[in-house]
Write a structure and sequence with these properties.
The structure holds 2 protein chains of 2 kinds. Chain A is α+β, with helices and mostly antiparallel strands. In chain A, 21% of the residues lie in helices and 45% in strands. In chain A, strands 1, 3, 5, 6, 9, 11 and 12 form a 7-stranded mixed β-sheet that branches. The chains are: A alpha+beta, B alpha+beta.
Amino acid sequence: MLKKVMQGIIVLCILSLSFTTFAAPDTIGTYDQGTTTGLIVVSNPPSVPYSTTYEKNYILSGWGQEGVNICLYLYSPAENVYKKLIINGNSVEWQIGASGLFMQPVTLSKGENKIAIRAEDGYGNSQVIQMDINLLSQSLLDKLLRAF
Amino acid sequence: MKKEKFKTLILILFIISSLFLTKEIWFSEELWSQDYNFFSKWQNTKWVQAVAKVLPWSAEDDENDLEFIQKLSYPQKIVVNCGQFRTVYYYGNKQTQQSYEEIFNKFKGIFVKLLDDQDPRRQSVSGTDEWFNALKGRSFYVDFGIGYNTKVLSEIFGVKETALASQVGSIRQIILLPMDTVSNDVTFLVKNYKDNSITKFYVNYPDKSVLNDLLEQFASESTPQYAYAFKQSFDKRPGIIQAITLNPEILMPLSIFEGIPVKSHSPLSAGDISSEEKKILKAFGYNPNTSRNYTDNTDYTRVFVDNYSKLKIHHNGLIEYDAIEEGKGLRLPDSSVEENRALPTIQPTDDDDRVLTFNETLQRVVFLIKKVWEIDPNLHISSPVLEGQNSSGEYTFTFDYYINGMPVLMRLPDNSVKHAVEVKVVNGTLMSFKEVIREYTNKENNGSKESALPIQALDNICKQLNQQEIKVEDIFMSYEESGNEAILNPRWSIRKEGDSEAYTDSLAKR
């Protein structure tokens, strides 16, 4: 009887372990780089970690291996961690398809926007790319365009 | 006396009736042998044609034909770029047709100035940075969808000789930039279709405020948001994994696209189509009363045969004409010949040796399409127009339907046609003709159908194709025509580089 109970507990532990392996964590640390590189490449913003833009409606894009799960995080200065980005009550997560391309629109706030992209494959390998996108004001852009 | 008067009256009525019936036989039913036609010969003499051209209704027909040919060559897509905002206008989209025409008419007016300029100011552009910067800034991007020989395009726009043709041999894409407020010039960036080199041209246009107003007005209509593939670097090959690259100018909407389902119907599918059949026969020079014919028992296709060709009329709307050999088919008349007239296969003409130009051939083809069936305003030319004058006068034209701004891809069961209209002409003589006659109406209650995001559709198509390397030339919404009476839902399709075939997302929800 005890043997059967122990077997059941071990099975439950293994199952719960696999669930925690595939679900993206709710927070990631500022020093977290993941366990590997090469799962994804971010093409926009073109320079990582620092870039500037005038576009409030920004598109994060890139390419990666088919089947890789991606989750977006936003830096929380109060807690000094990156927390899952929640839009309309849902976290922003998706899986890369056969084309290997991904595109995700985000709305930036004025000034500094610290974002992290976490990628994870089916074997538990993860990659974290942190980026700092500075949104400049549209009026500055308009002035520059008029000048030229 | 009364009896005599009555007899005279009856006699007069008989004479009138016989004159009327003779007129019907000769001019309406045109019951004469195909090989000799006195009236056709008479019509084709130069002095009769010259008189016919002067007649007011004849001029109006010519103008309508020319206007239609111009419309056939309208750009497939116009993008109004205003920084991060942009709006895309597609040919054939009735909802945005007014805006499309307003923008294109303005563009055309300035482009004609460039075509007219005998010595346009120009500058070569190295690389593609300036081109992409123009797309990111304030500009009008015009994509004709197919490559055009510059001289032919110029003629379609009404300019017979253009210096532009010697500098840029063929064109598909043009960007118009209003530029700064200091000079009176606007700039055209013209991409050479054959080698992708870019040349910048300057045109004097003091009234630039009109262009800037258009930019502000039309780019602000941008929903959903679009992204150019080059901005996301999807045109580059990454070092890892993947070998899917996109044409840098592909524009992808970033939210779900809502397309309108359409009902597809063949007007030749049911009921008595004898009058339609007669009209089609006459268009191809067949005598409806004397031509040999039979009905194929497998699919009830009507088949007509004469000494030089075969004509098939299918119930799904497909009309097929094939000449038995080159030079023996129908001699295409120009539009000076009366519309309802039947034509003999071989028409006498004084200019048999002259090779017809592309434009002349296109006009005759359009005239033939009009005779076969009422020209659908949704038709658009889809074959590249790269040869201005072909030495043998051999041209192949294809046309496709554009409904709600989306092309209709032909997917008939036997793959016999790839386009709505396919015509092969050899120096004014018809070699083969295929047309799929269909009518499209937006589905009742105008219920729209949500489609996947283009990235999701691209994922599905890549899975279907199961290929390692794919260079995507274009991603677009489309309808698929199977030839049945059906509701067509809009679906994403792609074209690969160097492949004229379109691949559609068949895994999308129906």
